[in-house]
Amino acid sequence: MKRHTGQDKEATSSWRLETRLVRGGTWRSEMGETSEAMFMTSGYAYDCAEDAAARFAGEQDGYTYSRLRNPTAAMFEDRMALIEGAEVARATATGMAAVTAALLAILKAGDHVVSSRALFGSCRYVVETLLPRFGVEVTLVDGRDVEAWKAAMRPETAAVFLETPANPTLDVVDLQFVCDLAHDHGALVVVDNVFATPVLQKPMAYGADIVVYSATKHIDGQGRCLGGCILSSEQLLEEQLLPFLRNTGPNISPFNAWVMLKGLETLELRIHRMCDNAARLADMLADMKGFVRVSYPGRKDFAQHELAMKQMSRGGTILCVEVPGGREQAFKFLNSLKIIDISNNIGDAKSLMTHPASTTHASVAEEARLQMGITEGMLRLSVGLEHVEDLMEDLLQAAAQAGIAE
């Protein structure tokens, strides 16, 4: 295979985001295809035994086995690194594979991790239940509280882990502060940037060592398949991440990587349209006065609005509302929706709404959910690409059906 003309680091470094999203990392075969090729193969043939030996010895460029790297997955990885501003990336089968691999690759028994407590339910399981099984101690803190981060650090702290904005509470963590604090203690910083996406927030600009994504969400953007991605420096990849990834095999399939490549081409357009819709819906819902609260980082009444807008270029595609009548009223609201789907996914072109306490965070103990701020009346809305006035009308009629007064 040969690289697309201009696909060298010096040339691509001058490209703007929109160009990187469409053309970054593209390779073309001798066929000259315009759409990236899909290499559905597990293995590769060699011209001679000497070539095979040279590739395995790292003396010859080329592929050996798709658990180690695949050309289609490599294009997705190279494009992700380019748009994130990372040196390298490796794709995984799911977002949780990315989170789990990133943490297990850099930790060992006796290490300590400090993590924000407002996390996706599966992320809570990894840090709260899985890591301690392997002798890694974990301290959960209120990610909004800089003093809590300071107090939790120990000499043996090897990593900090956080989501910002968090799922589903939208809590925002001060990236610059936490990165500086962690590095002062010799710890690595792992950031789940799913809610913000690489379009709205760049954690590495604040010092994050590893950024992880569930590509299943906005990157695919149309609810078609699963995928994840880990981004880091080349040194960190070679020394810590790559040995784990190569030998445990959490790889993305070539087909899913190809779907993600197609999703990236429209990511920037979709995110900005979703942000437009989310901002208008948040304002409308806040004006209704019938909710306990409406949370959206782009609104000035959001508790951490100033910090959110310092770190993110826009308010995001997700908002939360809390109804006064708990689970019963929340379910009535959901069941009255006619356009917006009831679904636990986010980042889709279709607007999706869910009840976190009974879905994404059902496995989290009630006390821990309440500590995070996940009440029985909380609903999370992932705003899609529909006409915003249709979404407004759907939410208004659902609120009326659920007995939420304007």
Give a structural overview.
With 406 residues, this protein is of the alpha/beta class. The protein has two domains: 2-265, Type I PLP-dependent aspartate aminotransferase-like (Major domain) (Aspartate Aminotransferase, domain 2, 3-Layer(aba) Sandwich), CATH 3.40.640; 267-401, Aspartate Aminotransferase, domain 1. The chain has 16 helices and 14 strands. Strand 7, helix 9 (197-200) and strand 8 form a beta-alpha-beta unit. It is globular. The N and C termini lie far apart (61 Å).
List the helices and strands and how they pair.
Elements: E1 2-3, H1 9-12, H2 17-23, E2 27-28, H3 49-56, H4 71-84, E3 88-92, H5 95-106, E4 112-116, H6 121-133, E5 137-141, H7 146-152, E6 157-163, H8 175-184, E7 188-192, H9 197-200, E8 210-214, E9 228-232, H10 234-248, H11 254-265, H12 267-288, E10 293-295, H13 305-311, E11 318-322, H14 326-335, E12 341-342, E13 352-354, H15 366-372, E14 378-382, H16 388-401
Parallel strand pairs: 4-5, 4-6, 6-7, 7-8, 12-13
Antiparallel strand pairs: 1-2, 3-9, 8-9, 10-11, 11-14, 13-14
Helix pairs in contact: 2-4, 2-11, 4-11, 5-6, 5-10, 12-16, 14-16
Total count of helical runs of at least 4 residues: 16
Helix content: 40-55%
The strand count comes to 14
Which whole number gives the mean pLDDT? 95
Strand content: 5-15%
The run of helices and strands is: EHHEHHEHEHEHEHEHEEHHHEHEHEEHEH
Rg from alpha-carbon coordinates: 22 Å
Return the structural class.
Answer: alpha/beta
